[in-house]
Amino acid sequence: MKREQIKMWTKRFLWVFYYVLLITWLLPFFIALWIPSQPADEGIYVPYVKNAPYASPAGAVVSEEALLDIVSAEMPASAELDAIKAQVVASRTYALRKLEEGNSVYDGQAHIDEAERKKRWGSQWQTNEDKIRQAIFETAGEIMLYDGEPILAAFHAQSAGKTEDSQMVWTSALPYLTSVDSSWEEEGDDFITKTHFSMEQLEASLGVSGKMEILSRSEAGYVLSVQVADQTFTGAEIRQCLGLRSTAFTVEEEGDGLTFTVKGYGHGVGMSQRGAMALAAMGWDYHEILSHYYTGVSFGFEKDG
Length: 305
What we know:
With 305 residues, the protein is an alpha+beta fold. It is built from nine helices and twelve strands. β9 and β10 (257-263) form a beta hairpin. α2 (64-74) crosses α5, α3 (81-100) crosses α9 and α4 (114-121) crosses α5 (125-138).
């Protein structure tokens, strides 16, 4: 009787062990199947949507060589490959739109030719060139669309922790250029910069000096209007006149003038290049990066004719 009980409990134990082992083995599969991947913070990831090929009415196509010139200037070759791919797709889309408007393929984007790349990269020239060409090849012809048309794929160097709505910088509100979170950029060494101006320097740059008061900001934290003495300026005017890195600034009186504390670098609209680099380092692919910074876009491919 005792031997039969031992056999019975041994058999039960083995069944329980097999069930636990089976569940442990299958659980990751079911999690991957039913729960969407979220490489970074929950609630940020947006699945991407692909579209049919896009045929430019003007027959415009952005060449690989032009993209190589542009991306080499716009995104560090040391970035993760998916950050470079995100830049390639953004730059291709931006350039295609410019071509359709009758402008140069390089209009509005930095670019460097082969001679300059060799000068800048030195012994790393071939390695960097191959990496950027790989990003171009692996995204061949890919562009971003909204309502079936190439988007204005604006981008900037570094946001102030959030990107800006397009209507706060330009005249039109574009539905795919809305303010989104980019707080992972705040860890960078140069996220915050400080610049001091004497009253004489302010007078020379603005035509007026005196007490400065920030009158309004956007919800994303960028300055919209400023009063200096009896004159009013936009945040963009202050940035341009004083050479500030962005309009996300605070100001305080210090010594013989004013000190500006500035967050980020650039106009703040669209994809943050520094933010894209950080997301790629966290494991996001280029579709996820672009779908985050450009709200509601889909992806298509250039097609001749």
